[in-house]
Amino acid sequence: xxxxxxTKQNIRLLKDTHRGVLVVAMQFAYNKEIIHLIRQFEGxxxxxxxxxxxxxxxYFDLHLFFETLHKTAYIDYSALSGKASIKKExxxxxxxxxxxxxxxxxxxxxxxxxxxxxxxxxxxxxxxGDFINAxxxxxxxxxxxxxxxxxxxxxxxxRKISASQQNQRINAIKFYYEKxxxxxxxxxxxxxxxxxxxxxxxxxxxxVVNMLKAASNTKHKLIIALLYSAxxxxxxxxxxxxxDIVISKKMIFVRGGKGKKDRSTLxxxxxxxxxxxxxxEFKPNYWVIEGVNRKRYSETSVVNTVKSIAKKAGVSIVxxxxxxxxxxxxxxxxxxxxxRYIQELLGHSSSKTTEIYTHISKKAxxxxxxxxxxxxxxxxxxxxxxxx
Length: 388
Fold this sequence. Notes:
Layout: E1 9-18, E2 21-27, H1 32-38, E3 45-47, E4 52-56, H2 62-69, E5 73-76, H3 83-94, H4 105-113, H5 118-134, H6 145-159, H7 163-180, H8 205-214, H9 218-230, H10 234-238, E6 245-246, E7 251-254, E8 263-266, H11 269-282, H12 299-312, H13 321-334, H14 339-346, H15 362-367, H16 371-376, H17 381-387
Parallel strand pairs: 1-5
Antiparallel strand pairs: 1-2, 2-4, 3-4, 6-7, 7-8
Helix pairs in contact: 5-7, 8-9, 9-11, 9-13
């Protein structure tokens, strides 16, 4: 009996400059399957003059690339010297160089003392840095309140910043004057945007099914299933540890969610079966969703994964992780689940809904069916598809 040995092909990733822009080039022998896979990525292009497929370096996601192609080919990314350095160089080559602002040390210290999340600290430092650059020839203490509104207005008109970003920038500025310098709140009366009462975007149950079927990678399938079935935020998914999945109680323990609050949410039966397949295939060490070299999966990878799979599944809107969370809440409400339970599952603290948190008992949690299981019931189509 002759056994045919199937060998993986090599893909070498390297940095290059194409038409004056830093790119990540892919070098490999012609292979239809590899070309089919890489063409699914947004922004991938073919250079006839260079003879390779490439990404603009600023938009290249190594984690997502590795997860998509590691079963088909050996990926040599040693020449990249790390994804972070690629992005930094790309941004320097594509954007006008900005003077690095000297943010007062007291600003950093107070952000840490008040235990702001890493995401919030990054946002505040970035936006306050922009503010300092705009007034780079002035002492911060001498900037008058009436000068700040024109600065914000300029951002709205020239950069087309959103209402949400407008509020974040105002918060970053007020944090310095009101928290660091301890000036009265009335001192900096900055005009805020009108609150937009937009309805959250959701997708239909059938579209959730289509996304799960479209996800060929087990890890990607699990990402979609966890975000939707448990109503997780993106960072809550990324911070999920193996020990936070409590199989015996059919629950997921969310540590330090938004507002530093812990909570429990649903563990879908379908997710439990997916986890069993996923653990055997990927063998994660600490985080439930691990990336390259067992490191914490990146935020960008989650966003790109969700968007890519939704597009592949033919969903009519651009789907984000938060849209899956909105869909989780909407579908639970449509099933007749008490709004107070949904509020607790999501980790919301709205005084408009209730003044006192409704803590879900183990009995109540056991009686609530995840919307993912409501769709499939005892039909294991997705699980069986994994075994084909």
